[in-house]
Amino acid sequence: MRATFADFTIDPPRFGNGAARYIRCHPDRDRLAIGAGGRVELDFALDGGELPEQLTLTLIARVSPLGESLGWAPIDITVNGQAVISRFTVPGGARPREVAFAVPGEALVAGLNTLCVRGCAEARGLLWLYRITVEPSRICARMHLMAEERPAEAAVCAYRTEWRAPGSAEWRPAPRLLVHLDRGEGSLPVRLAWRGQDGAEASIGFRPAMTEFYGHRRAADGTLTEYRGVLEGRSPLRDSALEEVMHRFRTVEGCGSGAPGLRQELRLLIEDGGPPVERVMWGDPSGHSGTVSLLAAEPGPEAEVTDLVIEVRAHSEFAEAGEVAENLLHDSWHKWLGHGDRAWLEFTLRRPVAVGHYVLTSANDVPGRDPKDWTLKGSDDGEHWVDLDSRVEESFAHRHQPRGFTFAATNAHRHYRLEITRNAGEDQIQLSQVRLFTSAPQPKGFIGHYQRAGEAPTGYRGTSVSAVPEPGSATAPPRTVEQWRSYLAEYSATILRVADEEELSEVDDGQRAAGWLGFEGADEESVLALEERLGTRLPPSYRTFLGASDGWLNISPFMWRMRPAKTVGWLREADPETWSVIRGGEGEDWDDTAFMDRALLVSEEGDAQHWLLDPADVSEDGEWAAYIWASWYPALGDRHASFAELVAEERTGFEDQAAHEVRMGRPGTAEDLVAEGRAQALRGEVRMAMATFEQAAVKGSGAGAYLGIILGAFLDISAAHHWIRTGILGDPRVIEAIGMEQLRAEAAPLYLRCAAEEWTGTPGGYLSALGDILPRLPDGVDGVVGAGGVAASGAATEGDDGTAWMARAAAFAPPALPESRTFQQALDLARALADRGATDQSWAVLEAALPHWHCDSPHRIAPVVLLTDPAFREVVTPARARRVVTTPRGEFRE
């Protein structure tokens, strides 16, 4: 027989091989609500041939809560009047549960059969029914499913694994495999396949209860192996270390047709010893299957702790070639190279940190030098070590390839040791970079599809739980009237700054002067009158939007006017002409008719688009789903969880389109970011500070751009002149924000030092700022013609061969910026030692003084003189330059 189902997660409900009747129950949002004495009857047909010995009835249901306690709603189930189960109570909780029952063959008849789910009279809550399925029994699979329901929900399965080459008799140990996949239905996978970010793929099948698996694996380099594993144990999810590596998504199923579907949570963990997975496919005992492709994300700067490394050592290094272990901490093309096919690297941090993710980057040449097997260890004292993570048979597909590895971090350590026990075949080992993180990058979400047995596939998407902002956070969409006023005022300022006169044609002088594209907020009486006219309460974020502004102008490039409360209405009534056009639809698959009949129209005038809210798609906190319908869409646009999220999405799109103009705005926000970045830099959190300065620069801060480039020069001085040329001397915003005196003292000498080391001609004819900074020379000095071949504007004249620029650079004496008395004394002593060739002693003096460096100027974050003064050229090596900015300084010194 074909599976019979009733899906109540969409409106109207969808039925397969059956039809339903409701008695004292009703559709409620994305489910069917059955109260005491209510029932739903589902008719389904069986052909006249041999009747099945048994059918399996599956319900996905949840009991409504009673305040803070679990609800109680027992049900009776009958088929053709014969009891299947009596007074059964669906387990309570925050998620829908899947429960299965056997329907005996003697209860079935040829032809029409009737299934009845009835709420018991003594129920003290509602049964929220999401789905009913009647299908042929898979007895063994169901037995294992029910037996392992609790472990499926609560445990991560850990496997001891092996692999072997095709045709070989020898199985070799492989990395441990961790597996957890739970859609909230208590169903264990029977087959699983995944692809890693490096292209490696695996496909396996499980024995019942997931006690063993067998399959195959293709490595990133194309090597194919058999793959098998034995269950070692199950770890509870309350283990905080496993929670750190678990992916959790809020999901929507049934979104492929544009209609909302079943909302659940997907918990996913597949850790096979390689990089994070990017695609997962699975099937369960019921014949259901799913596929998801994860939206990858880079590790956030707040998770990186590489800057806390104060010392790195190696078993050996090629110091004469500059290929030393210190290079591993730099984001550059340099590398570390050591002797032999085995090696160790040790990293000492400023303080203990629980590292749970690390990235190794292959070097520039000779793939045979790449590490292949290794163990990462941790220690509190640098002598006694514990194993944290082991890898075997790893490979790098190309040069300068970063690969990330995640493990369950349990304790903080101050020392970490990477023991490489085998490389790819050469007699030397190399890496370009090692980075340490407290946690792995979390995917932002996923897209995919889910297919129930006997049915067509349906859309499936998810958003990372960690990516969903908490209410009231800085990134959360506005909800209160006060939040809306602040949000809309900021948005108005951006639009007024970048929009042209034609786009602002309806904005009056008063709105321009006030920087407010809205109106007075609707009072409570007006909002209540609207709700009475509609016969329903408005969703919270739209209700408070009206309280902040009763209507709006230019809320997006394609929506020019929002309706005030007095004209908001159902689409069919507020705009019957548009309603009739949309409702007509096109093609057999047009399924928006019901939606358009119930949609609330909140927009008034736009570029052939309308903003609509759906009263049948309501979240737990009362928000209605929001959509845009436009004439150029094939159907409804993307679903948004609320009106506020729709506005936020449109604003993001607008700012992306007007990126250049938007970068010049929000000075207050940019100033806050500069202050935050400066504090991070003084704490020694270099990478985090650079990310913050970059955000400030994007939002229009010349100071943010300057400080980020200066900080980067300490990490990689070889590339600094490129950034100074374009990002400082070529940007009027930076010059205006920082001022000529500091540019002469820091940026110009730093640029000239870097450029002189690879001088190829003039430093750029368009750099009028450098022309103004360098001294002008009299005619005839070193063959210089006129003012060094420089026009009055400071730009190089045509035909200049670089001699003039070099002469002017040689005559340039940068001013000294004031330093504190303590640090100035250290500079003087260090110069004297350097002049005598005592470079190590000179550095010891500077290193001891670094924590005491401080400056009241908001545009200084480090003693740049250490990079620009020729006296320190041999003292401050690249490794020591990095130490300068990773040392906490001033008020943040330890």
UniProtKB/TrEMBL annotation:
Residues 521-649 form the Knr4/Smi1-like domain. Residues 453-478 are annotated as: Disordered. It comes from the Bacteria. Coiled coil: none annotated. Pfam families: F5_F8_type_C, SBD, SMI1_KNR4. InterPro entries: FA58C, Galactose-bd-like_sf, Knr4/Smi1-like_dom, Knr4/Smi1-like_sf, SBD. Transmembrane segments: none annotated. This is Discoidin domain-containing protein. The lineage of its organism: Bacteria, Bacillati, Actinomycetota, Actinomycetes, Kitasatosporales.
